[in-house]
Amino acid sequence: MSTKETVFFTGGAGFIGMHVVPMLLEKDYKVRIFDNMFRGDRDAVAQLGDDVELIDQDVRYGGAVHAAMKGCSKVIHAAAVSINKSQADPYESMDINMIGNHNVFAAAADHGVDRLVYCSSASVYGDPERLPMHEDDKLLPITPYCIAKRAGEDLLGYYQRRADLSWIALRFFNVYGPGQKTTAYYTSVINHFVNRIKNGEPPVIDGKGEQSMDFIHVHDIARSVVLALESEQANVPVNIGTGIDTSIADLAHILIDAVGADVEPQFNPRDVLVSRRAADTTRAKEVLGFEPTIDVRTGMTELIRGQ
C-alpha cells in the first residue's frame, strides 16, 4: 500500500503542467493527470514514469471529474481554453472554463481535498488603472476567458464558505518558456520578432513600442504552483509575475541581442491602445515565500538559443 499522496491535475499534460509534474515527482507525490489531450503531449506524459497516471477525459463532464478525483488529497486545476480562442468561440470557452471550473471545485469540496490550486490569470484585472497591479485592485475582465477566470475565483470562495475548501488562485502574468506552442497569445509576438530577426529583417513594432508585459518564466510558474500546494496560508488570490514591465521595444532589443543580429526595430506609426502590466509581488512573497529566479533577458536568451 503506497503512502504517497496523489495530486489530481487537470490540464496537467499541457505546457505549464509538463513543467510542474517533474517538480511534484521530486517531492514524492503521485500525479493523476486529467486532460482531454487536445493540446497535451501523450509521448511526453508516458516518459514521466510509473507515478504518473493519465486519464484522457474532459472537465466538462462532472461525473468523470468526480470519479477520477477519488483518493486524491490535492488538486491543481489548469484545464482551460486559451484567451484568444475564447473570443473566437465563446460557447466552448464558457463550457470548458466555467462549467469545468465548477465541476472540479464541486468534486474537490465533495472529496474533502486538503488544497486546491487554481491557475487564474492577470487578465482578470483588464486594463489596469495603476502599476504595479495589486490583488485588491478593481477587476475588469474583458473576454470570456478572463470573465471565467474571475468567476472561478468567486466560486472558490463559495466552496470555501460551504465546505471549508482550502484554495489559492494564482494569477499568472505573461508566461513564456520552452515547450510553449508558437500560437500562444503573446508567444506569437516573440516568434514573429525572432523569425524576422533570424532572416536579417528588423522586427516591426506598432506605435512607439510602449505596450508592456510582465514576462514570467514557466520554471518560476511551476515553482509557484508547488509552493501554493503546500503553503500554510490559503484562500486568497496571488499574483505570479516578476514585478517588472518589459516594453515591446525592450523585448525586441533583448531578442535581437539573443539572436546576435545587426538590425534595429522599425516602428510603424499608428495609434495603439497602450497597456502596461507589472505584478505587485508582495503577497506572493508573504503567502508562498515565492520570488522569481529568472529575469526576462536571461530567460528569453536561453529560449532563443535553445531553439
Automatic annotation (TrEMBL):
The chain crosses the membrane at residues 6-25. Keywords: Isomerase, Membrane, Transmembrane, Transmembrane helix. Residues 9-241 form the NAD-dependent epimerase/dehydratase domain. Its EC number is 5.1.3.2. One of its GO terms (molecular function) is UDP-glucose 4-epimerase activity. SUPFAM superfamilies: NAD(P)-binding Rossmann-fold domains (SSF51735). Gene3D superfamilies: NAD(P)-binding Rossmann-like Domain (3.40.50.720). InterPro entries: Epimerase_deHydtase, NAD(P)-bd_dom_sf. It comes from the Bacteria. Belongs to the NAD(P)-dependent epimerase/dehydratase family. PANTHER family: DTDP-D-GLUCOSE 4,6-DEHYDRATASE-RELATED. This is UDP-glucose 4-epimerase. It comes from Nocardioides cavernae.
